[in-house]
Amino acid sequence: RRPPGLRPQHLQGIKMVRQLCGGRLVGAKPSSTEVAMWPKGFRDGDFEVDTGTAGSCTLLAQIAMPCLLFTRSPSCFRCRGGTDVSWSPPIDEMCLVLMPLLRRFGVEAELVLVRRGFFPKGGGEVQLTVPRPLNGKPLRPINMTDPGTVSAVTGKAFAAGRDEEPGLDDMIEAARQQLRHWLPPDTPINIERVVESPETATGIGSAITLVA
């Protein structure tokens, strides 16, 4: 990558894994191109990470989750940074797609959006809670070899950081037109329109997440 090496959010992720697993960590510094870690074992408890930038909270939550799932007691992970930023899954995708999928594996975890954060300031916050970790049990196997057909499309279009967003309806209608072009005409399409108050976000942003 250019520039090469670890960026702040990558560094926070690596340091977070050491916090969750203990052990020895070598090479964890900005721009480092080589890192080594010797973990001791998963730890439960309450953990917090602040990227100090718009570094992705969702990517850090994805890093933390496997560690917290295999502890023996409940844990809570809070992360501050970006919740809806480029090159990472938005928080709504994780809540609407990833978390329901993980429940099929037997995972009991909750991901909550506390505050949205956008580039460049960040300032968002998410909370991941694992009330009942696997405690040594394996994940439940599932079969996902048949993609099936699209029976309905749901989603959420939001604007945050303002009291109103005039372009939100245009975003929803553009998505509907594209979906109607590719889907059978009788396919239900339900996109929730949400305007989030300035108190619930750092910065201004909008996005749409669709689930088939």
Summarize this structure as a short list of keywords or feature phrases:
212 residues, five-stranded mixed beta sheet, globular
Work out the number of β strands: 10
Going across the major beta sheet, what is the strand order?
A: 3-4-6-5-9
Q: Please count the helical segments.
A: 4
Instruction: Look at the structure and give the mean pLDDT.
Output: 93
Computed CA radius of gyration, to the nearest angstrom = 19 Å
Strand content: 25-35%
- Compute the separation of the termini in Å: 33 Å
- Give helix % range: 25-40%
H/E series: HEEEHEHEEEHEEE
Q: Which regions have little confidence, pLDDT < 50, spanning 5+ residues?
A: none
Biggest β-sheet, characterized?
5 strands, mixed
Indicate the overall shape. globular
Structural class: alpha/beta
Assembly form of the protein: single chain
Description:
This protein is α/β, with parallel strands linked by helices. It is 26% helix and 27% strand. The protein has four helices and ten strands; from the N terminus they run αβββαβαβββαβββ. The chain has a five-stranded mixed β-sheet with strand order 3-4-6-5-9, with helices on one face. Strands 8-7-10 form a three-stranded mixed β-sheet, with helices on both faces. Strand 5 and strand 6 (124-130) form a beta hairpin. Helix 1 runs parallel beside helix 2 (57-69). The longest helix has 15 residues, at 168-182. The radius of gyration is 19 Å and the shape is globular. The chain starts with 7 loop residues before the first helix and ends with a strand. The model has no long low-confidence stretch (mean pLDDT 93).
